[in-house]
Amino acid sequence: MHSTTMLKRFCVISLVLLVLVGGSNLAVANAETINIAVPTDPDSFDPTRSVAAATAEIAFNIYEGLVKSTPDGQVTGALASHWEIDPSLKIYTFYLREAYFHNGSRVTAADVVNALNRARDPEISQRAGNYQAIDSVSAQGDNQVIVELKEPYAPLLYELTELAAAVYPKESAGLANRPIGTGPYKLEEWRPNQYIKLTRFDQHWSEQQPFFADVYFRIMPDYNSAVVSLKTGSIDLIPRLEASLFHQVQGVPNLAVYAAPMNLVQLLAVNNARPALSDLRVRQAIAMAINRDQIIIGAAWGQAEKLYTGLSPAMPEFYNSNLEDLLPYEPARAQALLQEAGYANLELTMTLPSAYPLHVQTGEIIADQLRRVGINVKIEIVEWGTWLEKVYTQRDYDLSIIGLTGKLDPHTILSRYVSTNSRNFTNFNSPEFDRLISEGISVSGPERRSIYDQAQEIMTREVAGVFIMDPMQINVLNAQIKGWQSYPVYVIDVAALYK
Amino acid sequence: MRYLRDRIISLVVTLFLISAVTFFTVNVLPGDPAILILGTEGDPERLDSLRQELGLHQHALVRFTDWLRGLLSGNLGRSIRYSVEIGPLIRNALPVTLLLAVASVGLALLISIPIGIGCAVRQGSFLETVSLLLTQLGMALPSFWLGFLLIHLFALELGLLPPAGFSSGASLILPALALAIPRAAVLTRVVRSSMIDTLSQDYIRTARSKGLPQHLVLYKHALKNAAVSIASVAGVHLTQLLGGTIVIEQVFGLPGLGQLLLAAALQRDLPLVQGLVVISAALILMVNFGVDLVLLGLDPRLRYE
Amino acid sequence: MRQGNMPLWIGVFFIAVVAIPTIISFFYTPFDPVVMEIDVRLQPPSSAHWFGTDQYGRDLFSRIMVGGQTSLTISALAVGTGMLIGGTLGAFSGYYGKRTDELLMRIAEAFHSFPSILLALLAVTILGPGQRTVLAAIAIANIPVFMKITRASFMQQSKFEYVLAAQALGASDWRIITRHILPNSVRVILVQASASFAGALLAEASLSYLGLGVQPPQPSWGRMLREVQSIGDMAPWTVIFPGIAIALIVLGFNLMADGMRIKGK
User: Fold this and answer.
1) ipTM
2) Chain A interface, best mutation among B26, B41, B109, by max A CB count within 10 A
3) What CATH fold (topology level) applies to the domain A64-165?
């Protein structure tokens, strides 16, 4: 008797538990709530700490800097209503508007000075390297901030749009999980691995109130389940959907798809310091053995633009579009070059980051293409941590595939190929290229464009890496939601969305 | 009493061994958490100072004793990845996995007991053949594949249940079903064979010949006797599930212990991995212990072994 | 008895259906399973490509044939290792009892309580993802299983009169174990091996689904399923055929285990 009841009781209890949890936790459908699927948690909401793109796209809604980027890649005022640049191009004066932090206090020049000084302090900030051009930051009165540069530095305004230059109250602590910014939304709750909840900030300086009062960023590492949730309505928006899932949302009546270049440079990283690969002919042979059309069909489902340079066409002002014929797809010539260099039977290892299916698939296709010209490629798939350590930091690899996040200014993107740069993980070494990059920061207009044109040609011709594609960012929304804006940087502009 | 004491000592020793093994394996692994934090955009110049901040410059033994001390005072440290205390992180994820595991075993029992009994009573019948065939099929399907199928059928085609994520108890029904089906298959066979054994025994025949109604014979006398083997198999499944829901959590996007662990291991969030392993191991050992106690309660004969 | 043999023979038949093409694949496949032909990607089953092609235009039938090599080899080696180590330890534990037993069983319990997926994750980070890793993880997970089953069988047997008699006659432990107990335990162990084999195939598929398994371009059934997860609705054949291959052979081994159990009774 006893034992039978126990079994029965166990079944009943487990069912009751299910129902109880079901009853108490049922999400209340609310017209002013939006659910957004994101693949990972932010790393940290402390602007001096965060380096992940996953954080930046959420933090865009919470934090603001003096300036921010626009959907077409320009710079517009945020906390600064306007600014003046001295003719020497070395002194920037920013005029603050009346704005409030999420804790209710007014934004003062002292807060801005504190935030910028911390951002450029290598002892404090993870991204200090980007702000080394700044000589001093000072306040003039309560609403003017003066930034003085050591020498003219064209990318400055773009760098100030980054999360690393966001402004927070001078005396704040613990921003990592309790951010205090000035953005249109404030953080209400962060449940790691589950969701991040933002609520509308009613004191935002902008006249226009965002439509959605509550925003949930739900952590869904698997895009398949995110897509299913979107179709059944429990998710309203998937930003940056993987291309392999594009066909699942295409032509579905209640979904709206917005595609735009991602401003991500995917490249076959070629370790220029490896014996065989230090031979320019071998690198060029590799470049000419690669058929980008096939890769884009096979790995990106046709949803990408071909690249022949380290900049993305998402930056039309600087993108050099004349490099296509420099090292075209010609397997026969590739084979000849390998013969000439004495590497008819080359063995190479390609190290791929398992966290990124697009890069792994691209790598598989490239390995196949290289085998056809006689380069035997062994594929090694490693975890992200191992990849960062082995490939990126120790530069102990032959070939790899990775995507480098686009920025708004070409200098930020191209300077990583300068021979002495600590992020130059392909070990590219071209004195001419180095010279051009250091010239590029102090000039502007057509002259600047011409310098970057030359620099791009060098890195393509001398194969700093083989640039493959800029994948499309595919943003999918419930069709009832309007106002989506695609940015060339990692941004999910929730305030612009409405129903 | 002595049995209890021995079991508890053994539990503590096992837990300590697991903590030590985990800590040192995790710490010799390649992949520096400081490098992971910096990613492809941070300044490599910051590596050393970041290592200092994370306490990685200290000797592994020092870190281990520090960590053990924290563990004993209930402080699991801070997660590197999420910059928050580990305790609440695990507390948020634990109920999901626990509920999922319990619900799966519950569902499996609910499915298997009636079918198993049916098979035992009507041996050689058409019902038995079909059920046995189905149980074989249930055991042969990979659980994630079953998961795809259930999502496709119940969430997409029929729109009855939420496909993914954890918003309500209803979110757990499909994943629990995906986990329960292969287990129900195993349990059905256990129920069937132990019922067959029991039904052939004399006292059941006596009960029957006395004219006791069939359902009373089955549910009051026979099932009681079969309960020991059913409970012990169910217990094994419960402990397996506490550490083994990760694939299904992945398929259904459930924020349970498994997903947290996979994310932590891939991100080399060492404190979090350690915390998770020790907590899961403790949980499993305790459930094991609990199951043994239940078995002792069910079958007094075991006490003298 | 005749009816009792049915599961065994059906099991053997299912295993053969999957294993024979796998064996043939060592010598011959209709297409190269690795070389990509992007132009013929995602073709539905046809007379040229019996099971259709995948997202890189590779012939699925050839890939499933070759994929079997990986999945079956890993499972066989892993279960073999687990059986050898676990069986030996279990035999010692069961035969000698007392201290040895207590110590070994405590270690087995510790292993058992260790989440097996973490074991796999640890193995991946130490050995790197790939065949060896999956093999090690499955083998280690199988050790306590074989240990428990062998121990139980040995414990039971060593209390039987014929063993006690042999001991009284002064037979050596080695002789008793190999001549008397082992032959009587073999069936139990083999039944477990067949069931474990089925489990190992499923474990390989799951680990590959999580991306911890075999490396491309080498195919394995689990990895194939992972790669096509997102295109299942568009090209169902890519999901269905590898799934059937797994289900069929797992079913085969489970039925075989059943058949052996029945036959022995």
Assistant:
1) 0.75
2) B41
3) Dipeptide-binding Protein; domain 1 (3.90.76)
